[in-house]
Amino acid sequence: MFMPTMKPSLITTFNANLTKVKPTNILVFDREVSAVPGIVKLTVGEPDFPVPAVAKQAAIQAIEADDSHYAPGTGSTTLRQAISHFLADRYDLHYQAANEIAVTIGATEAIYASLFALINPGDEVLIPTPTFPLYATMVEMLGGQAVTVPTAAPDFVLTPAQLEATLKAHPKLKAIVLNYPANPTGVTYSAAQLKALATILAETNLIVISDEIYSELLYTGHHVSIAQFLPGQTLILNGASKAGAMTGYRIGFIAGPAELMQKVNMVHSIMITAPSDPAMAAAVPIFGSEAGQQATLEMKAAYQARRDFLTGALTKLGFEVATPNGAFYLFAKLPAAAGSDDVAFATRLAKEGRVATIPGSYFGAGGEGYLRLSYATSMANLELAVTRLTQFLAKED
Which stretches make up the Aminotransferase class I/classII large domain (predicted)? Predict the structure, then answer.
């Protein structure tokens, strides 16, 4: 069989920024431990629930109606109206469907389009850590520099003092990325904490890229967006992947002031032309119907029960767990007897204990000595994981 081989001298022709991009440790580690026979995986940040029936039916109806032509680049009018309703109804945020909302190919494209619209070579972007590593990767791909600021347990939130110090030390800062409820910690910001940060940011020209993809999975209290306090400088990122268990449908969105969205949409429309019609149809009831909201609430109740079980079990085993009020992750500090090498511990736990987690250091500074455990899996799997973890720790002593 003929297999094409690239001309060797072409190796020098690629975008130089790609040399800064390293393989994602999370994916590499997950792939390696997945080869262990019978392993229980607490690695994947993906809902284990089926797509709600109301969303499936909407997609089927769109297909049967031959909804198969180019949609507007910013997404179907129906979906943008549903998103506008969703933001107003849930969070008292008011964005016009016509020119302040764009439907993206998942939140991932939303992150990239937002950063692309802002970053010039050498620009700096503030990213509190530990956090989802893709933010820094994208900044570096675009020729920018990620300025990471480690946050501290147990809150894992950026403080006003840290923000002020970073602003003074980095005059080239162009933007700040916030993710809350957070991956990997599950913690979030209170209204008071966000207001304090917004008060400082209002004196700057920084754009806030606020990734709120887990906003519907908040267990106590009510999610508040920093856009409440800083609407003129904020781009909100969200989507159907987590709240609707629709990761494969790839429906996200960006909302922001029309002038900001005009620039973001220039990037967005060139990248994708338009989202998929049936996928957008499926997302409409997730954002715009009581049935969609009820489906999310039922999933959230199950996640909360899993969180409570796993938090209690890990605490009894000597882990210190960050208070997870949202998303579906626990960020657990290793017991003192286990040492602080999270990569080595997670590797042994996978190969010898047959429980797969993600080392906390993969999420940046401040994550060393922690494990991220996803409870987006069945209670039966969580119970088996705790049993195996208990046995593994007993052998480690």
Answer: 39-389
Instruction: Give the type of residue at 244.
Output: G
Tens-place pLDDT, residues 1-44: 778 999 999 988 999 888 878 778 898 999 999 999 999 999 98
Domain assignments of the chain as residue spans, ordered by start: 11-50+293-396, 54-289
Question: Across-strand partners of 143?
Answer: none
Q: Look up the pTM and report it.
A: 0.96
Helix, strand, coil shares of the chain, percent, nearest 5, are: 45, 15, 40
Peptide bond preceding 181 in cis form (omega within 30 of 0): yes
Strand order in the sheet with 234-239: 101-105, 251-255, 234-239, 207-211, 173-179, 124-129, 145-150
In Å, the largest CA–CA distance within the chain is: 64
Q: What letter represents residue 207's amino acid?
A: I
Assign a CATH topology to domain 54-289: Aspartate Aminotransferase; domain 2 (3.40.640)
CA distance 89 to 66: 31
> Are the CB atoms for 187 and 372 separated by under 8 Å?
no
What residues does 321 pair with on adjacent strands? Answer: 332
Do the bridges between strand 207-211 and strand 234-239 make them parallel or antiparallel, or are there none, so unpaired?
parallel
Domain covering 11-50+293-396: architecture: Alpha-Beta Complex (3.90)
Show the tokens assigned to 231.
Answer: 């609407």
pLDDT in tens, 132-166: 999 999 999 999 999 999 998 889 999 999 999 99
